[in-house]
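User: My advisor, Dr. K., asked me to get a structural model of this assembly before our group meeting. I'm new to this, so sorry if the format is off. These are the inputs:
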Amino acid sequence: MRVIIFSWEYPPRVVGQLAEYVNGLSALLVKNKVETNVVTFDDAATGFTQEPTGVKTVRLSNPVKTHIGVLTWVLTLNQEVERAAANIYHQAGKEIDLIDVYDWHFIPAAVTLKNGLGIPFVYSVESLEDHRSPASNTPYNMAIKSIEWLGFYEADAISVKSQWMKDEITRIYKVPSEKITVISSSTSSNQGIRDTVKLYKKVAGDRKNER
Amino acid sequence: MKDKLSVMMLSWEFPPRVIGGISPHIYFLSKSLAKQGVKVYVVTCDFPDAPAHEVIDGVEVYRIDSYKNPSPDFATWVYLMNLNMQKETAALTRKIADDIDVFHAHDWLVANAGIGLKHIFRKPLLVTMHSTEMGRRDGLHTTTEKMIHETEAWLTYEAWKVICCSDYMISHVKWAFGLPSDKLVMVPNGVNTHVYEEIQNDLQAFRSKYALPEEKIVLYVGRLVYEKGIHILINAVPKILQKANAKFIIVGSGYMKEQLLNIARSMGLEHKVLFEGFVDDKTLLKLQRCADVSVVPSLFEPFGIVALEAMAAKSPVVASDTGGLSEIIEHDVTGVKVYPNNPDSLAWGITKVLTDDAYRKRIRENAYRRVQERYDWEKIAQRTKSIYEGVLGEYSKSFWA
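Assistant: The format is fine. Below is the predicted structure of the whole assembly, which you can bring to the meeting.
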């Protein structure tokens, strides 16, 4: 099984807790015989690296340096994420089982890759714009929400860490609850990583059956 | 290679959505490419009452759901629209079983979509740079302008070939983005001569609304802004009237209108200079057919389509020797070139055309022939097709093929 993880933070670039989480998860996936590629952002140390954990990483910088806001920054960076993922896909003989996307930032790339190349994706939700910016409906917040909505609509499966988040996504975005899987702790228990691999196999298998 | 070349055009405007010059450009280029046996798909933004899919003279047009939520600003909307455009174009390309040989993007407005599709499907990307942010703004002054400029630079970097519509734009784009010369290729803009042929020849009644029978008609078509040099023409009027009897018809509007009206009034020229404002398409075509001379006194001009239109309408052109105009007009052969920003020179050129009937007839005929030879959409489509074929030849030797 071969997967690509999209995360906008990954060591050594640590912004919040997501970087360490993705680092731990990707190492565990390799131990469970899943070939794991991580595509992430780093403006200083760019390029391809084989990590000591066995994870293959691609660190990308933004092709456009001057920006008027987070949205334009994210949307141009997405093109590099898309390019890196397409390169992995073509170099791997067009065999990628799925993409696992952490939060909204790289949803645009995952959506295009799915529509163009038929690679399924899992949307792993850490947080929602509705909670980060409560009761904010400016065009800026609405744009981020529309990208989250697009992710929920296009994703083959949605992964969350708590029943509360599952209920919130169902409440706010009216997503069918059977599309959402709760995996409480992928990195701190054997059960967690087993559930993650199980979800990956289900998504990859469903997609193969469709073809 | 397959027997039929296929291209996916990306443009943010296509008729009936017309915002600037890109829309008619894609319309005529696509139709003419289809006539040359190229399979053309156009993906563009939606428009009220225009169908999501239609076939126009063999061209497959798809109108995508452009981002319709309120956007923080225009530039952010462009990038959000590109997300939808590339998602839908990716799905379409997959549906037609990757039957696309090249992607052809027009301006930074579709940069993200073009770049993304290139890498996903590993097919060459071509771009036509119709303009640049640097040129439009005369420099880069704000964060937005810098961001757009960098997006343009990134697009030209990712493109296999960069097409510009004049040698002037080639050198400008080369300088602005630091591109190697062999990446740039010039294909001129086209003009449709058929629309002028459809105008009836008997325009006496129409003409009499504007000028006396003994008056010649001098026509200016363009925005009334500084860079178009309309004030140079007004200043040249008295000198022309010393030698020839003429009516000056000014079509178009702009921020200089009031100022120009005042100048004309203070010079006592109100009875000779008519400010018509915007006119409808039919009236404009007729005016261009009637004009004894069409004047393009621009101080800055990337291409100068209005000169080509006059040539297609068989109206002799007097233009300032600058930018794209320098290339369109061959002095004394297809028109008259005068010094930019010089009323004396402009008056000399206009007077020469108005007072020498044989000369006027000769440049009019030469100009019309030149338009048919160089600026005919069929010929432009042939050149564009051969650029596609050249790129595909290079591509076939790359590891992407």
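One thing worth pointing out at the meeting: The interface with chain B takes residues 63-69, 71-72, 75-76, 78-79, 82-83, 86-87, 90, 108-109, 111-113, 115-118, 138-140, 142-143, 146-147, 150 of chain A (CB under 8 Å).

User: Perfect, thanks a lot.
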